[in-house]
Design a protein that fits this description.
alpha+beta, eight-stranded antiparallel sheet, three-stranded antiparallel sheet, 11 strands, 30% helix
């Protein structure tokens, strides 16, 4: 497989769950002006066609409505954006963003995006590679200054590269990070990298030979965060706004440890598996490259479609076509770069990612050739079950290929 450098040179480059409150749920619908006349019927079929999935991934039981299933799973709120042919065809919010205040989820409600942060961070890295500010397939230690990846027997033959980090082939430890409470002392990035107090995670180290196999690592993305900050000279939120969020037209999005003031009026508080609220509404994630994004499903659709337009050669504002095609090419023994990638030879290539922070779960998928897909965000630890059922329901209604990895 060609290295990215070759490609770039070629192209010139706590409230209990309340049944009475739940039964009074309402939802908000926003639609494209060009929405097909039968779209309302499709939405009703989706809303009332949820079939529970058992532990083996098979349909189990009779159909239920989204609201009924949310009640059964103790999920206070859910937001969804469905798109096709390169445009959003409908969005809806269900339930409450805050059970105590009875504020409802709408299309503008902001959620913690958890690991859906990683694709945006990956795009920022490739953006800087196109500008020749980062050498994506060369030793990251030759590009870092204030901190280095400690050498050990695993790095003797193969060095860590930025490209290896975004496709989870760099051999780092730490699958995901625990958050911090608002009253906690928040560690700096260097404290996280070194595993020093007040960090609640171990040192970020290479624990497998880089380049051999996929091993998902949020820890590696914090090494990448340091590189992005050093080469741009900017704090991570500012550089991500300049490189990705602004150009992609994500108007209700930000990387931030605490909910930004501009978004605080409509954000979803997180809820635990038992239906109780996360203390103070949400945890803080200082490892922002891995899990620090606040956003909406609609904004994530704008991001996905920007990449899709690049993939199809249709004047994107982020990356060049060759770079996006490189990102969406499966790495031997792994997935794509920044996304999981699937292609069974009969359906559209699709690129996807899932995420979960304390009190939040989310999922996104885009079919590259047809510009269709869905983004779902919930403010609950229990969201994965319903998201699996919901995307399976959507696939049935629209005749789309399976969108959940277990269904393929």
């Amino acid at each position: 497989m060609k290295t990215l450098n070759t490609v770039l040179k070629t192209t010139r480059l706590c409230v209990s769950f309340n049944l009475a409150a739940f039964c009074s749920f309402s939802f908000v619908l926003t639609c494209s002006a060009q929405q097909p006349k039968n779209e309302s019927a499709n939405i009703r079929r989706i809303e009332n066609g949820i079939i529970p999935v058992d532990g083996s991934g098979k349909d189990s039981g009779s159909t239920r409505s989204i609201l009924t299933r949310m009640h059964e799973l103790k999920i206070p709120g859910l937001s969804i954006a469905v798109f096709d042919q390169g445009r959003i065809i409908w969005t809806r919010g269900y339930g409450y963003r805050n059970l105590a205040s009875k504020h409802k989820v709408d299309a503008g409600t902001v959620f913690q995006a958890a690991s859906l942060s990683k694709p945006l961070t990956s795009v920022a890295m490739f953006e800087l590679a196109e500008r020749q500010m980062i050498r994506p397939d060369e030793d990251i230690n030759q590009q870092l200054h204030s901190w280095k990846v400690p050498d050990n027997p695993f790095t003797k033959e193969h060095q860590v590269t930025p490209e290896g980090i975004v496709c989870h082939m760099a051999g780092f430890n730490i699958h995901g990070f625990a958050g911090y409470r608002h009253r906690d002392t928040i560690p700096t990035l260097l404290q996280i990298l070194n595993g020093e107090k007040p960090a609640n995670s171990p040192p970020i180290r290479v624990v497998e030979v880089p380049g051999i196999k996929e091993s998902y690592s949020g820890g590696g993305f914090e090494v990448l965060q340091l590189l992005l900050q050093e080469v741009t000279g900017k704090p991570f939120p500012a550089l991500m706004n300049d490189l990705v969020i602004g150009p992609a037209g994500m108007r209700r999005s930000a990387f931030s440890q605490r909910i930004p003031a501009a978004l605080a009026g409509d954000f979803a508080a997180g809820y635990l598996a038992d239906g109780s609220e996360v203390p103070d509404g949400y945890d803080i994630y200082p490892g922002q490259a891995a899990a620090g994004l606040w956003t909406t499903p609609s904004d994530l659709v704008h991001f996905l479609l920007n990449l899709d337009k690049a993939y199809l050669g249709r004047s994107p504002s982020l990356l060049k076509q060759a770079t996006v095609k490189y990102m969406l090419t499966r790495v031997p023994n792994g997935g794509g770069s920044g996304f999981g990638v699937d292609h069974d030879g009969t359906a559209d290539l699709d690129f996807r990612h899932s995420g979960g922070n304390f009190g939040y779960t989310c999922y996104e998928v885009c079919f590259a050739e047809s510009g269709k897909g869905v983004v779902i965000m919930t403010n609950s630890d229990n969201g994965a079950q319903l998201m699996h059922e919901l995307v399976r329901d959507i696939a049935r209604v629209y005749g789309w290929p399976a969108m959940w990895p277990h269904d393929k």
